[in-house]
């Protein structure tokens, strides 16, 4: 079961990183991300979310 979580988290992370422009274009910009991370902060937020999902996937694979 942990391998399934790993695959799902990595797939979700890859999708967040690969399609972050599409996500931002089709949803609203995130105000706090723009304020904290500066101009283009929403794109950076989706990049961080994708990397964190990869980390969660590896955590679930090895420690879950």
Strand content: under 5%
Net shape: elongated
N→C terminal distance: 9 Å
Q: Which structural class do the helices and strands define?
A: mainly alpha
What number of structural domains do the residues give? 1
Beta strand count: 0
Question: What is the typical, i.e. mean, pLDDT?
Answer: 94
Question: Which stretches of 5+ consecutive residues score pLDDT under 50?
Answer: none
Q: What is the H/E string?
A: HHHH
Oligomer: single chain
Main β sheet profile: none
If you compute it from the alpha carbons, what radius of gyration comes out, rounded to the nearest whole angstrom? 13 Å
How many helices in DSSP terms?
4
Could you describe the 3D structure shown?
The structure is a single chain. 84% of the residues lie in helices and 0% in strands. By secondary structure, the chain is mainly alpha-helical. The protein has one domain. The longest helix is centred in the C-terminal third of the chain and has 23 residues. The chain is elongated. The model has no long low-confidence stretch (mean pLDDT 94).
Secondary structure topology:
Elements: H1 2-18, H2 20-26, H3 31-37, H4 41-63
Helix pairs in contact: 1-4, 3-4
Short description:
With 64 residues, the protein is mainly α.
Characteristic terms for this protein:
84% helix; mainly alpha; 64 residues; elongated
């Amino acid at each position: 079961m942990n391998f399934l979580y790993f695959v799902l988290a990595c797939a979700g992370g890859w999708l967040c990183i690969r399609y972050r422009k599409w996500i931002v274009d089709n949803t609203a910009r995130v105000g706090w991300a723009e304020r904290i991370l500066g101009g283009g902060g929403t794109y950076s937020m989706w990049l961080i979310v994708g990397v964190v999902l990869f980390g969660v996937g590896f955590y679930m694979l090895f420690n879950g």
